[in-house]
Amino acid sequence: MSHDDTVFDEAPNDAEGDLSEELVFEEDAEGVLPDASEKLKKLKEKLALCQKEREEYLNGWQRARADFANAKRDEDARRVETVKHAKESVFIDILPALDSFDMAFGNKTAWESVSAEWRKGVEYIYAQLLASLEKNGITPIDPEGLPFDHHEHMSVESVPATSPEEHDKVVGVVQKGYRLYGKVIRPARVRVAHHGEAKS
Q: Which GO terms describe its cellular component (predicted)?
């Protein structure tokens, strides 16, 4: 046999080896597919679990944020109420001084007996005091001529009405009342007219 013939005879063997390797590769590829599918399934499950945990963490964070905002709002409201109550205590102590001004102004004979300059100075001080109190939420209740309101007025005397239209109206203020931010901290003490027989 010649050298050329020997080489020719070996060629089919190499082809068979290549075919064998190709068949083995195909079998490996078929064997790999179930593993990849299983891995993909596990990855999807893991992703779904991560998404669920993320949603839970996000919801928890949002709830915590809302709880914090609510707690802060409640604390701010309590602080405002504390300040209001502190002011109320101070203002109630100031009210007798305001009553003294009203009594002085109400005594026309005594008030007009002093010099005009002195009266002007006292009236200016009184106006400043009222303006300062108003900035802090204090407003007077001076209801003369208005219908009697038991929420803001305290009747200390009933007097005969001069007309039917005057019935159950305030015809005199004995002592002014005051509100703090709309809340009555002292009702006005008033005289109330009644049509017909006066009531005590």
A: cytoplasm
DSSP at 148: P
Show the tokens assigned to 129.
Answer: 């005091």
d(CA 175, CA 198): 21
- Residues with Cβ within 8 Å of residue 148, at least 6 apart in sequence: 155, 168, 169, 170, 190, 192
Q: Does residue 21 have a pLDDT over 60?
A: no
CATH number listed for the domain at residues 140-200: 2.30.22.10
Mean pLDDT of the region 86-94: 88
Locate the domains of the chain by residue range: 140-200
Contact between residue 133 and residue 91 where contact means Cβ atoms under 8 Å apart: yes
Distance CA 73, CA 78 (A): 9
> Of residues 178 and 22, which shows the higher confidence score?
178
Q: What is the mean pLDDT of residues 39-56?
A: 86
Is 171:193 a contact under the CB 8 Å cutoff?
A: yes
Residue 147: φ, ψ to 5°: -60, 145
Of 196, 152, 155, the closest CA to residue 178 belongs to 152
Contact 98, 191 (CB under 8 A): no
Residue 104 near residue 110, CB atoms below 8 Å: yes
